[in-house]
Amino acid sequence: MRVLQAESIGTGCLTFDESLLQDLSTTLFQSERGAPVFVAYPNRQAAEAIEDRFALELAETYRYIKQKQASKQIQRLNRLL
Questions:
Q1: CA distance 31 to 52
Q2: What are the backbone angles phi and psi of residue 51, rounded to the nearest 5°?
Q3: I need a labelling partner for 57 at 20 to 30 A (CA). Which of 21, 23, 42, 65 fits?
């Protein structure tokens, strides 16, 4: 839910690409950057801070990819493939 909230802030995306988000989540969780999500924290506030940072990074990456996909130059190059 936090990812959806973070993603909805100023993305300009009209459609939501669930498979892209799933791929990004899997990659991020399995990377070294995802390790803090699996650590036990002394209180809920500390855990939520990590979750929020993770969700924001995920949303920013999603937004970046969606913006690149919308680029006319990228679309032209994709058509050439």
A1: 17
A2: -60, -45
A3: 42
The model carries a pTM of 0.69
Task: List the structure tokens of 65.
Answer: 């990819």
- Opening angle at CA 51, ends 22 and 18, nearest 5: 15
In this structure, are residues 21 and 3 in contact, taking their beta carbons and an 8 Å threshold? yes
Distance, in Å, from the CA atom of 43 to the CA atom of 4, rounded to the nearest integer, reads 24
Round to whole Å and give the CA distance between 17 and 15: 6
Backbone angles phi, psi at 47, to 5 degrees: -65, -40
Are the beta carbons of 34 and 57 closer than 8 angstroms?
Answer: no
- Cβ of 76: how many Cβ atoms within 10 Å? 9
